[in-house]
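Risk register update: the risk that structure generation would not scale has been downgraded. Supporting records follow, first protein first.
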Amino acid sequence: MSSLETIKRSLRNYLPTSVNIDDFIKAEMTLALLEKCKPEGDPTKAYLLLHNYSLLGEVVCDETAFLLQKAHRLLHSCSSKMNWAKVLENYRNAQSEFCLYIFTEKIEKGSKVLKFARNTELAVEPDRADVYFEYIRKHKEDRHFEYAKGGKYSYSIKDKKSSTVYSADVKIPDRTPQMPVSPPPKKTRKKISVSTDELLASAAEMAEKKPDDYCYAILKSNTLKAVTEGNVKRAKRLEIDKITNLVGMVGSGKSTLMKVLSYHLAKADKKVVLVLDTVSSVLEMCSYLSQFGVSVSPVIGRSGREKYIDQVAKAHEKYLQNEYSKYLTAPCIIDGMAKNKSDKSSAPMFGNEPCRSLMKNKKHYNCPYMDICPAVRMYRDVYTSNVIVTTVQGLAAIRLLGDNKLFLEYVLEQADLVIFDECDKVQKTLDEFFTPSASFDKFRQNAAALCSEVMNMDTEVLESLDDNEKEYVDKLSISVRVCMAVRNAINSYGSKWQTILSRTFSAEILYNSLCKDNKGNKYISDKALAHMRRVTLGMDNDKDIEYLMMLVLSQQKESKKLSEAFNDWLTDNNCKPDKTFSDHIKLYLVVASFDNYIREISDSYLFLPYERKTQQELTDFLSTRFTAQQKILPSSAMGNLFGMKNDPQKGLILYRQYAFGRALMDRMPWLRLTEEGQPAGPNVQGQAGRTAVCNIMSMCL
């Protein structure tokens, strides 16, 4: 059987140079999945196969589920409806005799439907579908990063209060760090089974080591019960298989059991991850377990270390306890070697260390002292600790140093048990974490400072600005006009869509509503609407529609120029007179143009020089992508969307839906599958004072 590289070489010999081979291959891989899973399916909706939806509802465990999960990672760019439409269109425009699939359009129920089928006359690499499946199954992501070699480097230090950025230089000797390496991923996890007698024995050991510890007394005075076939009975064993819920009243001993179980499993050299509510509780738990000789370490973010120091510092004490200070106040080696530092940048850089941002010739490098630097000790301790304690945000977002792997990936590969404390709150936190929101009005107000700074620059300084920065400032300068144009359009054109506009909505939702109102070509041809949609997405060009999109954001109220241009477009497309429908088209164009405006700001911001980036609500919102997490988690059932809400008091509130967040907790064992489709992630225990999230197994204490 051929390899993927062989197929690429063969296709390059036949396809025009204008065809992007990688996109061509992605299109065929996705269509091969559709052929395997649903041969009669609509190829325009094949992107839905890449959303990991098999984890929603009843989980399916078979070889196809594994294949789709791997494809979800490899073909992630095709999971976007807009991107898939472009990739599919380009594939259809390629020379069909060299394509694995051919297409036909059929009329079903009065509408055109696209059908696809295997090209039976294919002469070039006819077995390529099997090659695609094998490649998807075996694919592993490559991570490319470089450590700084001997030489001179620079790095930036941002003052957190003023957002002023200072620079420093450092000369580094040639050195290759010996970073810890993750062991091979564990296979399917066995269920955890511990008798109540074993737990009491471990609690007794804890009492011997620390006589004032209360765990033994509390555990001995409580009863463990399990729900079996609908009946609650006393249990002699705690069994955690896939997902288990521990439910009990406040103060009933759930946290005590968590501590004893962690101690007991650590003795057996198991890897346990505790997910707690706050950073202070994370640090306190680490301090507590370390008293019993448990190998334990925290995983928390670096940017809030100064706040964490205040939280754990005891009154009237000059120094932090050692178990806190070794993680929170450790110095940066590079910062100690730096030259040419200003006075304001000489303070310790807690959370601002240049671990991955040493600069040379406009390129970033990793620090070569990661393996010994005390400032990042907690990320190294992950590899050797039996118990790791973190927060929901830490589990979801933090990256380990060295191979730049998500901590979540490490947990899926190595942890034997993950315990979520207060899991009824966790699901809400996860949903919100992967659905961030931001106020456009606050961003507009905060942008005034940067716009004012640029307006006051000398001409010589202004001309020296990077083109991307000029474009970014230009976009900021029209934010007031854009904001008012959108709000006025909602008030002026949305009278008949109040139900839709009173909730969070998007351009996609408005377009679907237009199509629904226009059912049966009631006002305008469906073809004209579809063309308009494609132009707003950048998939087609049309000077008239592009001109309208430019006008709708440049007018706070409808002008004669906009009205004339819009009426001309309606006339050219034989639109029947109807004010409400026409207003709805205008509103759609405004919202679609605003989407593009936000996307342009986002792209410009990403390429700004580090020293020009400011910490604002919307800029954080724009720069947060969660790309790596999206490759692991399933998409939201409604799709990953960008939308807005027009709040009468707060103005325009923007939101993004990145993933189905709670799946990180209630589907964790299935976030990694074996080739047979069996769960290969860690066992999970969720504990809550009132309700349980999953009902695979319920237990009471």
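Supporting record for the second protein:
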Amino acid sequence: MRRINGIHLEKMMNNGLAYLQQHEEEVNRLNVFPVPDGDTGTNMALTLGNGIRYAKSDEHAGAYLRSLSDGMLLGARGNSGVILSQFYRGLADELVRTPIIGPGELRAGLIRGYRTAYEAVVHPVEGTILSVAREGIEHIRTQITRNSSIESILSMYIAEMRKTLSYTPEMLSVLKEAGVVDSGAYGFILITEGMLKCLYGEVIDPVEVPAPKTQQPLVDLSLFNETSEFSDGYCTEFILQRLTNSRYQQVFDKQSFISELRFFGNSIAVVVNGMRVKVHIHTLYPAKVIAFAQQYGEFLTFKMENMQVQHNEHDLEIAKKKEHKALAVIAVVNGEGMKKLFEDFGCDIVIDGGTTMNTSSAEFLEAFDALDADEIVILPNNPNIILAAHQAVELSKRRHITVIESGSVAQGYFAMAMDVPDSDDAPFRVSQMKSGIENIATVSQTVASRDYSYHQISCRKGDEIALLDGEIVSVGSDYAKTILDAIAAIEDIDEKETCVIFRGTGVDEDRGEELCESLSARYPLMDFECINGGQEIYHWIIGLA
């Protein structure tokens, strides 16, 4: 095949996602760090999955890529997800006006893709997705001619990326010591391999993704009652499997099908894939749509949402919009104690980052829309969220949004402590909060989730480990000793005056008092405060200033 359109691309992307999902845990296991705070395979699958759900079917390749890219940018999670979304952003930017992609267009798109991804990262690291994407196309670009098939180009591209993948341990010493290749690079190759398999006719069944255990109710039922008006209708989506049984109509014409649906509603989209028909329609009469569709077959999936409730929710959000402020603060945390703490500190919006603290760009954009402020500050409170926060700022049409790159909730805590909420001088307040994260040491303590070895540090799964500013510095069988050893490793510990201890979920309050006593005995001139943070993964997070 020498040319592909948007429909081909849609099938290829679905196959790429399904192939990644099949190997998701394998990719996750390549994460060498022994703390499960953001697995690469999961982040990449969530990012691509959001793009596919957001994308609009279109024969025009560039139009499809643009909507896919927009969805990926909004749904990007973790550093790997952001880099993946930026690659597809470059691909879409290059091909946005291209209805059909041939060899030359594909070559240009792959080059633009990796260059855009590099530009999005402040300090690009070789031995990652960036390296395989760059070397994959640069090593074959002169071999691509106008007569090359899409299959041959992707085959060469994957082969070169596989070669670079095998060299990633030589580029990153942490990979070499762990004896693994880069997880993000491997995930990127899997997506591309899934796309190629589609062209060869190998369709991979999608993996059913279970709903998160903490999923909130889909609608607020109080927003629609016996006195409500109903004018917006239902958003109705389904996949219809046409059947050959004589009970069903066998003659199916897409345009005639759409013409009939227009009698029942609007915002109609119909995609035909063999004997399956995907339908989207806004209608006041879903029963009539169901009866009409069942003339041809039966439903594989069916979703119907009351758009009046959604409309009312939107009106309610507008009504709840915050009062105008000189400066508003958005913080990402995990744990009920953390949420209450940052709310009490004056944060206008506190986003629950979940166990792995992987907030998407879209969640930040929603937060921006809920605020009325001259200046907005974001406290990501995790290094894996910083890129997504910056991407949200770039996507937003609002100006004067500052990402204060807090790498832990401890840094975020001290940033808030330095704020001057009574002042209307927003730039001054931002500078004060930035100063709050300077020279803050963060010690985090948990149990190793896997075996790990790097430089002079090694641990076994189940060992107590303590990290200093994200690096493991202490391993043992006693959690308190690992914490004390990690704090002792702080170079300027004698200059620290304040220590704030956040106790994680499931950790007994008495243990907090015991830890404070041990630390007070070791550092008698330091002030200590123990707070119930309720965070998951890390049993203790300790900030020292």
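Confidence is low (pLDDT under 50) at residues 211-219. On this basis the risk owner (M.S.) recommends closing the item.
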